[in-house]
């Protein structure tokens, strides 16, 4: 009975050591640097499996190694930053505070006044409708300043 136990224990140890060496070998293979050809092959394989953009005929568009990708256009309406909102309000004459990027009580009040003046719902939030009108004041057209006589 003891011999059977020793034989089983020995077999378990041998099998586990063989399994560990195979895992180590696989890990070493994964740590090898990839060549550009390997990377292109991998991209092509994974692109065919994923939901990537396709052109007529079902061909998948996959950029080559090192090829620069064009950024995707933003989805949905543009969301202005707090500084852009404050700058536009200041240029429109509704805000006199610091352009610090914080939408505080002064900025909210200025937004509400701007909305009331322009026939919008005065909720103090800059949504697509408010921004479509307010954005015109972000970069105001400079007015000609008459020269001063000296």
Note the topology.
Elements: H1 2-30, H2 36-49, H3 82-92, H4 105-117, H5 128-134
Overview of the structural elements:
The chain has 150 residues and is mainly α. It has a domain at 83-92 and 103-137. The protein has 5 helices and no strands. The chain has helices at 2-30, 36-49, 82-92, 105-117, 128-134.
Q: Describe the main β-sheet briefly.
A: none
Structural class, from helix and strand content? mainly alpha
How much strand content do the residues show? under 5%
**Unreliable segments of 5+ consecutive residues:** none
Distance between the termini: 117 Å
- The best one-word shape is elongated
Query: How many helices does DSSP assign?
Result: 5
Q: Which radius of gyration do the C-alpha atoms yield?
A: 33 Å
Number of strands: 0
Q: How are helices and strands ordered from N to C?
A: HHHHH
Q: Give helix % range.
A: 40-55%
Mean pLDDT over the residues? 77
Key terms:
single chain, mainly alpha
Short description:
The protein is an all-alpha fold and 150 residues long. It is built from 5 helices and no strands. The mean pLDDT is 77.
């Amino acid at each position: 009975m003891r011999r059977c136990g020793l034989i089983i224990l020995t077999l378990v140890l041998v099998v586990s050591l063989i399994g560990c060496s195979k895992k180590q070998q696989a890990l070493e293979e994964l740590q090898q640097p990839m060549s550009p050809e390997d990377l292109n092959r991998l991209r092509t394989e994974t692109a065919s499996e994923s939901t990537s953009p396709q052109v007529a005929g079902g061909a998948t568009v996959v950029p080559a190694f090192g090829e620069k990708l064009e950024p995707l256009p933003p989805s949905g309406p543009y969301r202005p930053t707090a500084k852009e909102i404050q700058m536009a309000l200041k240029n429109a004459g509704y805000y006199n505070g610091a352009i610090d990027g914080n939408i505080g009580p002064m900025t909210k009040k200025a937004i509400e006044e701007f909305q009331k003046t322009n026939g919008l719902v005065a909720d103090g939030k800059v949504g697509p409708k408010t921004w479509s009108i307010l954005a015109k004041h972000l970069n105001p057209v400079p007015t000609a300043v008459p020269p001063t006589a000296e």
